Amino acid sequence: MMSPITVNQQNPDDESLPRRRTPVPWGSCGPIEWLLCRLFKRYDITQGNTLYLRRWLLYWTPWGHAFIHKICQDDNDRHLHDHPWDAHLLILRNGYREVAPHRWTGYTVQNRHYAPSLRRMPAEHRHAVKLWRDRETDKPLPAWTIAFCGKYRRAWGFFVDGKWKYWREYLGC
Fold first, then answer.
1. pLDDT of 120
2. Rounded CA gap, 108 and 94, in Å?
3. In whole angstroms, what is the distance from residue 147 CA to residue 170 CA?
4. What SS3 class is residue 152?
5. How far is it, in rounded angstroms, from Cα 85 to Cα 154?
6. What does each of the 173 residues of the chain score in pLDDT, given as a tens digit?
7. Given this model, what pLDDT does residue 123 score?
8. 103: Cβ–Cβ under 8 A, 6 or more apart, which residues?
């Protein structure tokens, strides 16, 4: 069983956004992160004691919303996942490899997404993110993105043996 993914208290309207903001002391991160934390609501998503994703909410409307993401760890799931909304991603720094089924053949492929670039990702797109690695230390290089998301339109989950499974059920939440 993999480490549970935890976030702050869940938003009942969306099931993917926590509500509580936690302060970040000066010196605990870089100046850009510190400034983002002062200006926008921040949500940390962890796996065990490891920060997986740091998310800042830029705006939220009934028609869509935007986040800045700092992806700190690979998706260590054995299964691909989808999302609750369509999105356009602006990859700002480092980029990542994406494991996904090929559009026509269904075979698993690795797509490379470099910074700076823009890509569209429909909610139904199945994938897993694998970060670039530092050549000397083999540590993951955090990927920075801005996600411009459409309105919430579906639940999200994981694909296990070709069948979709609701994320809370999959993670045992």
1. 94
2. 23
3. 24
4. coil
5. 7
6. 344 444 443 333 444 544 445 555 555 577 777 778 778 888 888 877 888 888 999 999 989 999 999 999 888 767 888 999 999 999 999 999 988 887 777 677 788 888 899 999 999 998 989 999 999 999 999 999 999 999 998 999 888 888 899 888 887 76
7. 92
8. none
Closest CA to 7 of 43, 55, 50, 56: 43
- Residue type at position 135: R
Amino acid at 159: F
Q: Which domains does the chain have, with CATH numbers?
A: 5-171 (2.60.120.10)
**Which are the contacts of 100, defined by CB distance < 8 A and separation ≥ 6?**
80, 108, 109, 111, 125, 126, 127, 128
CA distance 63 to 138: 40
**DSSP 8-state secondary structure symbol assigned to residue 139:** P
d(CA 47, CA 7): 9
- Cis ω on the peptide bond leading into residue 116 (within 30° of 0)? yes
Q: Report how far apart, in Å, the C-alpha atoms of 165 and of each of 42, 157, 159 are.
A: 27, 5, 6
Q: Would you mind telling me the total number of residues written for the chain in this entry?
A: 173
Backbone angles phi, psi at 147, to 5 degrees: -110, 120
